[in-house]
């Protein structure tokens, strides 16, 4: 697996965990908000209907009492209130969403129906002048409906209170769970941030620093260090293996260059000695030619000696040419290896740039996580506002219950439960807000850690660029050495041509030695031409010696 694939896998896992956790918290908060709204929307109308029924019941009880007291308009008030109460009962029955709630509401409706029946019977008896029977019915039946209706109303109020309590308990559980999830996100983010930093430092920066130090040593010409260990098969491992291979090739090349340089120096010395010997022989030939009549035999022998010496010189020059060609081939191979190392360094630099881009992408994702935490904080603020409004509604309900007196006690209990729920919900919202703040702090810390990792990667990019510069210096030095070898090859070819010319001249001298007496003047001119060629050969030999010294100095820069 490459470095890029490893890095993308770690970032993908972190993003998936973060998205899942944030989605879970967001869904839980939205679910609590929906259940809370649903419960309030269902409970508050029921409480309002119960309060209206209590008021209507009190008015009807007062109307029955006023009828018995012969108060004008009391019966009309009873009938008017009954019409309003029937509408309230219908509304109350339509708001029942469970079987148990429907049964409790039915019990309240039946209790009120019995009360209406007995109340109307009492009024009818009183209107028929049956005052005693009307009073008995009121005392025995109508008055007792107060207790029945109060019990039915209280039972329904207790059911509503139980429903609100269940919602409150569920909200507390969700708030606690959201807090644990938020804390888990913070811990995982910090741990993953630390692990990513260690990961980047271990598999990228440290091996590249070691490689940069080794490249600096090699750039000074010191090839004696041990091979770098290959800890992985990714781009860094491949780069390390290529560097080790290049160093071994440089060691082989420098050893070969040193041997060839020494051989070239020895051959140049031999060539110089041979050239000097040929020059001396030519001088003697020249003297003998001037005295050809006196020393013909000596001249012929000297020509033969010159021929043998020139053959040896030609062979020496041929060996020099072969050594020079081998040296040139070695220099070409070294240049190719150096260029390959430069290409590998550039590939590593491109990979480090890709890692740098991935680190920047991860930093952007952490910033989006901070923004999502801020959205959660806003949702928590909305829940807190809702709890404040609920608390205000509960306070208004308590005031209305106090106005209703004895008949509003049940409603007051419900209002107090609603107020407690609002206070607890507000506390839970505050807790969630505090946890969200902690998440934002931890997330920002993770962001700082990612910025620190980004700086580390940038340092890695700088180091690999420095290594690339060092490889460029090595390549330049090898190219310069290759040019010197090419110059030596050209000089060697010139020497070889000159040696062939001298050998031809010497052979011609040997051939024409028997005719020297007849053509002494022509022989003298040929010998003078030979002397000129020998002087040229001495100059070429001196140049070859200088080139061999320069080559030895270049090779001496590398320490095997």
UniProtKB/TrEMBL annotation:
<keyword id="KW-1003">Cell membrane</keyword>
<dbReference type="GO" id="GO:0006935">
    <property type="term" value="P:chemotaxis"/>
</dbReference>
<comment type="similarity">
    <text>Belongs to the methyl-accepting chemotaxis (MCP) protein family.</text>
</comment>
<keyword id="KW-0472">Membrane</keyword>
<dbReference type="Pfam" id="PF00015">
    <property type="entry name" value="MCPsignal"/>
</dbReference>
<keyword id="KW-0175">Coiled coil</keyword>
<dbReference type="GO" id="GO:0005886">
    <property type="term" value="C:plasma membrane"/>
</dbReference>
<dbReference type="Pfam" id="PF12729">
    <property type="entry name" value="4HB_MCP_1"/>
</dbReference>
<feature type="transmembrane region" description="Helical">
    <location>
        <begin position="178"/>
        <end position="200"/>
    </location>
</feature>
<dbReference type="InterPro" id="IPR004090">
    <property type="entry name" value="Chemotax_Me-accpt_rcpt"/>
</dbReference>
<dbReference type="Pfam" id="PF00672">
    <property type="entry name" value="HAMP"/>
</dbReference>
<dbReference type="InterPro" id="IPR003660">
    <property type="entry name" value="HAMP_dom"/>
</dbReference>
<dbReference type="GO" id="GO:0007165">
    <property type="term" value="P:signal transduction"/>
</dbReference>
<feature type="transmembrane region" description="Helical">
    <location>
        <begin position="7"/>
        <end position="29"/>
    </location>
</feature>
<keyword id="KW-0812">Transmembrane</keyword>
<dbReference type="InterPro" id="IPR004089">
    <property type="entry name" value="MCPsignal_dom"/>
</dbReference>
<feature type="domain" description="HAMP">
    <location>
        <begin position="202"/>
        <end position="255"/>
    </location>
</feature>
<protein>
    <submittedName>
        <fullName>Putative methyl-accepting chemotaxis protein YoaH</fullName>
    </submittedName>
</protein>
<feature type="domain" description="Methyl-accepting transducer">
    <location>
        <begin position="274"/>
        <end position="510"/>
    </location>
</feature>
<feature type="coiled-coil region">
    <location>
        <begin position="527"/>
        <end position="554"/>
    </location>
</feature>
<keyword id="KW-0807">Transducer</keyword>
<dbReference type="InterPro" id="IPR024478">
    <property type="entry name" value="HlyB_4HB_MCP"/>
</dbReference>
<dbReference type="GO" id="GO:0004888">
    <property type="term" value="F:transmembrane signaling receptor activity"/>
</dbReference>
<keyword id="KW-1133">Transmembrane helix</keyword>
